[in-house]
């Protein structure tokens, strides 16, 4: 399954400046692993030491937050759009 991954500005240094890359996988977990294989260092910015999505990172599949789906086990299909969005704190 090839998906389009939208990369936020802070992580583009891992993708050679690309704002969108293609990744392969049947779940978000597999997509993150594929991203790491092709763009070393990006996974540790997305996931913590336990392999969970970092608290201040949000991942969306076609606009749906994976936290309300199956988290990293959320399935993806060919052509889906995955967006990695850093959470913005404010007050």
List keywords for this structure.
91 residues, alpha+beta, Ubiquitin-like (UB roll), five-stranded mixed beta sheet, 16% helix, globular
The CATH homologous superfamily: Beta-grasp domain
Tell me the radius of gyration.
Answer: 12 Å
Mean pLDDT: 95
Count of helical segments? 2
The top level CATH class name: Alpha Beta
Give structural notes:
With 91 residues, the chain is α+β, with helices and mostly antiparallel strands. The chain has one domain: Beta-grasp domain (Ubiquitin-like (UB roll), Roll). It contains two helices and five strands. The protein has helices at residues 28-38, 43-46; strands at 2-6, 20-24, 57-61, 64-65, 81-86. Strands 2-1-5-3-4 form a five-stranded mixed beta sheet, covered by helices on one side. β3 and β4 form a beta hairpin. The protein is globular and about 30 Å long. The relative contact order is 0.25. The model has no long low-confidence stretch (mean pLDDT 95).
Produce a short descriptive summary.
The protein has helices at residues 28-38, 43-46, and strands at residues 2-6, 20-24, 57-61, 64-65, 81-86. By secondary structure, it is of the alpha+beta class.
């Amino acid at each position: 399954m090839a998906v389009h991954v939208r990369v936020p500005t802070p992580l583009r240094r891992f993708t050679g400046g690309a704002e969108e890359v293609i990744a392969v996988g049947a779940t978000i977990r597999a997509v993150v692993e594929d991203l790491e294989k092709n763009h070393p260092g990006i996974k540790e910015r997305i996931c913590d030491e336990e392999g969970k999505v970092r608290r201040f990172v949000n991942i969306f599949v076609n606009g749906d937050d994976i936290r309300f789906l199956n988290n990293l086990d959320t399935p993806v299909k060919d052509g889906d759009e995955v967006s990695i969005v850093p959470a913005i704190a404010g007050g």
